[in-house]
Specification:
- The structure is a single chain.
- α2 runs parallel beside α18 and α9 packs across α14.
- β8, α13 and β9 form a beta-alpha-beta unit.
- The protein has two domains: about 120 residues, HypD, alpha/beta domain 1 (Rossmann fold), CATH 3.40.50.11750; about 150 residues, Rossmann fold.
- It is built from 18 helices and eleven strands.
- About 40% of the residues lie in helices and about 15% in strands.
- The strands form three sheets. Strands 2-1-7-8-9 form a five-stranded parallel beta sheet.
- It is of the alpha/beta class.
Amino acid sequence: MFKYRDEATAKRIVEGIRELNVECKIMHICGTHQDTIVRFGLDQMLTDSGIQICQGPGCPVCVTTSREIAEVITLAKNGVTVTAFGDMMRVPTPIGSLFDAKAGGADVRIVYSVEDAVKMSRDLGKDMVFVGVGFETTAPSTCVPLNRDDVPENFSVYSCHRICPPIIQALLDMGENKIDGFIMPGHVAVVTGLDMFKPFSEKYKVPQVVAGFEPLDILMSCYMLAKQISEGRSEVENEYTRLVKEHGNKKARDLMDRTYEPVDRTWRGFPPIKKSALALKSAYADHDATKVHEDIISKTPQVEEEARGCRCGEVLRGLITSEQCPMFGRTCRPSNPSGPCMVSAEGSCNIAYRFSTKR
């Protein structure tokens, strides 16, 4: 399971957790953390040590709403070239997926970065939209071409970018899930630093640890949280010290502040959350797909958020595990997904299907 040199360290960390004798529920909000936890069997190891660990709304593709995807599909069906990351292509909506639109003749292309989309737009000579998805980790990269003098006139961005603090507050304010501590995403904190997490420890008295993505990172962050809980502390600690610095990446934050403004938006499985998404500022209206193609987007039909029986929303709120959804592994599989949690490589259902022995 572990590299040989890490196995003894893992055993010591787990024994340390057991010695603290803490029963608690910990949530992380990162699909990569979930992959590590399930791939390496850490969930059972931690459960045996008194720690219940669950994934929250940490998959950016999963939290993107059917309405947003339907608007992008509508653009594609009306002659606009759409570029998106691969995970976005197969997310089902009541009007199909982006792959379905492509199969029907729309010009929909997979890209690996925003720069791929910019290069394609230069070669294309017609309107092209890049679908920007992700949290503070990927949002700065979407800004870069928009702040260059040579950005093509036919290039625009449909921003599905979200930011972490509002969703954390929503989880705590909703109160439907007792969360004793958070493992916070290390890649987000590389950009933001630690300051944005501190209000939650101060206001809600919830311990937090920013963690990396290796198995030992996860185990150590759980030990640090269990230790805080056993000692009655509620602090923000940094396990991922090899990359995360106190104040993050100021250049990336300044770029985001110059390009985006926070707006209210619905997340899949949640009510509208104030100032939780990033829209392009008015200075970038010529490259904002919601402005450039407003007339086409207005043609988008009304869509239901979830397929009947799909419980992705509850999975994203940490209320149920993927295996507790009655569709999991039966009518809903990676080859025939009912919801985005089974599509994305960072989705809890997709990860569970690939690695779980319970199906």
